[in-house]
Amino acid sequence: RWHALETQLSKFNLTVIEAMLGSYTKVLFVRDPFQRLISTFLQGMGSSPSFSSFVQDVLDSRQHNASMTWKPLVSLCQPCLVQYDYVVMFGFLRQELRHLLQRAGLPADSLLPEFTDTQVRWTYSWLSEQMFSELSPQQKKQLSRFYRWDLSAFPFSSSFLSD
After folding, report:
1. Rounded Cα distance, 139 and 44, in Å
2. Cβ atoms of 37 and 43 closer than 8 Å
3. Which end of the chain has less neighbouring CB within 10 Å, N or C?
4. What's the first-to-final CA gap in the chain, in angstroms?
5. Strand, coil or helix: what is 11?
């Protein structure tokens, strides 16, 4: 019944929100914020000619005007308010989704698509290094500050934005 009425939790009152959240298995998929920026830039979702100018546009937008594609996850998913049952990290999808499907009583191997996590991690590591080198020290510092809550809430230990 709830699904037919609205699609955003913010449209419901607190009692209904609590009932809904209590009845679902809540899964949050997270990705390193710097990798999200790279992906957004490469998909052409920004109109900037260079990665550095795209990052400057992101920084100039501030959090309240930020696009959902680069807005900090903490402000989108409210992990301090919503108690997620699972947090799945991009780059470890194969292992984590297999475990999640098994916990749900589903046949994990038959439902999982082919993943190339190792290749993806290596490619993003190399790409991140290249793109990060284009940024000024000030932009690096501002990005770390922009995503400080994401970096605190999730274990992005290999992020270029982590200190």
Report:
1. 20
2. no
3. N
4. 46
5. helix
SS3 assignment, position 29: strand
Contact of 132 with 34, CB cutoff 8 Å: yes
**In the block, residue with structure tokens 């260079």:** 50
Q: Which residue has the tokens 């993003």?
A: 124
Q: Is the pTM of this model over 0.90?
A: no
- Residue 40 corresponds to which tokens in the numbers above? 């957004």
Q: Which of 49, 89, 93, 45 has the alpha carbon at shortest distance from 69?
A: 45
Using alpha carbons, list the distances in angstroms from residue 18 to 4, 26, 82, 138.
18, 12, 9, 42
Angle at 16 between CA 13 and CA 17, to 5 degrees: 80
Tokens representing residue 86 in the block: 């699972």
- Token pair 């470890």 is found at 92
Domain ranges of the chain: 9-54+68-153
CB neighbours of 4 closer than 8 A, spacing ≥ 6? none
